[in-house]
Amino acid sequence: MKRHLVSATVLTLAAAVALTGCSASAGDSDSSATTGTDESLSSVLESGTLTVGTEGTYRPFSFHADGSGDLTGYDVEVAKAVADELGVEVKFEETQWDAIFAGLEAGRFDTIANQVSITPEREESYEFSTPYTYSTGVIVVPEDNTDITSFESLAGKTTAQSLTSNWNTLATESGATVQGVEGWAQSVALVEDGRVDATINDKLTYLDYKKQTGAAGLKVAAETEDRSESAFAFVQGGTALADAVSDALATLSEDGTLATISDTYFGADVSK
């Protein structure tokens, strides 16, 4: 394990403790307000374990190999690498998505690694690391299609979309006629069979499909300009741990670890 970050952090914490003691002995009534009350990092270092909340049923991000094997996936492997960089063990707590933020707030785990998108609403309630996943929306068409080259060119075309998804909204706003489906599997099958002109979905979904099947006969015709960003989530005020994880992610990006993990699951680097 990589212990260099822990060594530096422990020294910092030790110095902070010493300063706290001096301040208290001097009778400083404001010492509790000026010393570190954020114990998010120190508690992880002291326990030697980073506890991570994740679904375990969300392929290719967090799932069990062959259905019942070891927990793996892009987010799982990134979390393992981050823990290694911090110099601690990692423990996963598998939790349904609907309960995962409540579990974080209740202290069942230190962070969430489950493709948590950074949104303005979530930023009001949680701390986030720097992103480790970036993605766009893409138009997927047959590889011989030359008519669709942008979202504007979807006007008058037929796309297959889940009617409750934001991709359905984008398709409709682009002027497409939408055929409702239950999800990606149905939509891509309709494209492959030539029954619709295209489908819009997350680029990660397409890359995973391409990695698993080869996506023969398909191509990406266009991408959205806006990108979604996913990161580790922490309780509000847990900035020390969030910053340490961000530092670890920076190192893992620089040394190529994130790119390697990304290529394993997507055949492309989605970490930047």
Automatic annotation (TrEMBL):
Residues 1-26 form the signal peptide. The keyword Repeat does not apply. GO terms for molecular function: ligand-gated monoatomic ion channel activity. It is found in: Cell envelope. The keyword Signal applies. Residues 49-269 form the Solute-binding protein family 3/N-terminal domain. This is Polar amino acid ABC transporter substrate-binding protein. Gene3D superfamilies: Periplasmic binding protein-like II. Belongs to the bacterial solute-binding protein 3 family. Residues 24-38 have a biased composition (Low complexity). Residues 49-268 form the Ionotropic glutamate receptor C-terminal domain. CDD domains: PBP2_Ngo0372_TcyA. One of its GO terms (cellular component) is membrane. PANTHER family: L-CYSTINE-BINDING PROTEIN TCYJ, MEMBRANE-BOUND LYTIC MUREIN TRANSGLYCOSYLASE F.
